[in-house]
């Protein structure tokens, strides 16, 4: 009934994390792997998956040691709020800016492909409005929307079997990781494709007792890994390394080859559908930022916090002019987020081990 | 209060009511008050009037003992009883309320908005008695409970909440009763109006209660663990909690073989997609994404559109509006004139508009297909909601092509995700994920696989069919 607060089930956690992790990067991931790791660069993906799993296990340790309490409660029960304020502000800034930049990246890509003469600010405005509508409704509504978005996008995977006839193992070559530049920025860029899993930290307290939160997070990451492996393997075998290095959005170009008697060039629909995955990612980051800021501004309603965050980042988001600028911003924020994803659990671990809860006796 | 005073007060209440009857028997010290069009005249004559003619004042006590009555002392209660179809008999300083209610309504007839090919054809009619009787005849169980409430400060309309004890989740019953009791309005005229007053989100375009005029559908909802509401004066009953997908289900699905039922249900989902997207995609493709059309089809399309002077979005909105006008005119006019409208509209839309260069042939096919698809929905209210959403998507497609359509769908999904029916998710069983229910939502599986009640009902007794040993 309305008085009972609904909680997330295992399946919802799985889909929510999967949809948060899957983003627009998927359309250029093949090219990023080819450029950074060279021939058969897709084989680098398992290393990323392992790194994320290690990170998730670390978060799982916090979940277990904190007995499912929210990370904010863990911190506030051990440290004064004044000390935590800068951390909350930093988290709010990074998460809300990440949400904003994910949207800008999508808007720039979309504008470049379909509407080169339209001012991207209009697209951004509408997408921000959608994200705000979604994030202010809370994590349970977001998980339900993400589940529907998942079903609306997942059919693209079986659909891609229509491209198998163009796939050739010969294009893989017998060489591994040759001709890659192995640049740290490139490697970080690929890792950002997996980001989103760390927000599982904020779901403590929102899940059903029976839901295996961390187990589902690991499964979600494996699902993301499997989908990235599949897509990247497909683009490597479809275009070959040489061509892939020079393509900006191989996934979109690959779907351009799908033809039906009544419709063709279905990549036009693909980048439309990517809006759904992007919205899930974006709203989750905005929601996380809203949760963090909510610890500082407890009297402000979540609706107004969401509005303020979306509006604030909207204006900051007007600064980058080109896709290249956005990518640079995203990489730096990605580095900050990687630091958060490892640093915050380590900080929490230290707190849990060193400091006792306020008001508890030593032997309690 | 003395009889004289009380009687005068009540008679004052019904001042200037020409249809009000007051029969006085001074020799017996009896006054009888009632509305003759609301009562069973035969019963009144047989049980009250005739005996009164043959008794003396001393025999009144024994004459009254033969009647079924309740004694009311409050003037307000007596007035309400008379208004509800009872006769009030005043004698010896007391008011005897004798239930004589006999609403004269339409006979039970065939359902016009929810016809089925196989299965029962009868539909509810306006009097609640007849509706309750049709339901009781289908669920002959003492567990079927019926709670009477009143709605409307002026209309005092009876509303009945029905449920099957031990199957229903009582939280839903209490929530519905609470919401109905909280209604403060002068009058409620139909069930479809009532449900809007107890909606979770009254501003939403989607119906949050399942309304139907089919007794078999309501009986299946009750047996499925849902709460049902019946309103006097409306041929519709409602059930809750409901979900978006429940509106795709027709009683026919269960009366046919499962494979046919499944095929029809899948067809309805396809029809839903066609209704909301087909015209929008036409506008999007012909305005922004010509590259999506294969070359051979492109020739036909460009030839068809070559004489049309408007952009596709205006062309589509124009045709959709004409179709809606035809539909509305057809619905309001008597059947025979309605047919003429259909023929005139068919000729105007089908031929003249194309020859005049107002629209393209292909758009006619697109608009007609989406209009036909919209009528495939078993629920008229849901079908109307979907048709309205289509207009929004056409406009968005005209502004931003495929992205516009995607933005529209995203907005719809966000709205639907937040929507609830009696506090239960409107997207059940997709979100929350209940794969067990999919067998009775996306397909109509054989009955042996439909052994459990819908999870949305949160029934304390979820098993509806024992598996065979």
TrEMBL record, chain A:
Transmembrane segment boundaries: 12-33, 45-63, 83-109, 121-140, 147-165, 185-207, 219-241, 269-287, 307-323, 329-354
Record-linked InterPro entries: Spore_GerAB (IPR004761)
Tell me the membrane topology, using the record's own terms: Multi-pass membrane protein
Gene Ontology biological-process annotations:
spore germination
Keyword annotations: Germination, Membrane, Transmembrane, Transmembrane helix, Transport
Q: Which GO terms describe its cellular component?
A: membrane
- Where can this protein be found? Membrane
Q: PANTHER family, from UniProt? A: SPORE GERMINATION PROTEIN A2
Concerning its family, UniProt says: Belongs to the amino acid-polyamine-organocation (APC) superfamily. Spore germination protein (SGP) (TC 2.A.3.9) family.
What is the recorded name of this protein? GerAB/ArcD/ProY family transporter
Question: Which organism is the protein's source?
Answer: Paenibacillus sacheonensis
From TrEMBL, chain B:
The regions listed as transmembrane in this protein's record are: 266-290, 362-381, 393-416
Q: Which GO terms describe its cellular component?
A: membrane
> What keywords would UniProt list here?
Membrane, Transmembrane, Transmembrane helix
Q: What is this protein called?
A: Spore germination protein
The record's Gene Ontology biological-process terms are:
spore germination
Recorded hits in Pfam families, A to Z, give: GerA
Q: Does the keyword Hydrolase apply?
A: no
Classification via InterPro entries: Spore_Ger (IPR004995), UPF0353/GerABKA_families (IPR050768)
The family note in this entry says:
Belongs to the GerABKA family.
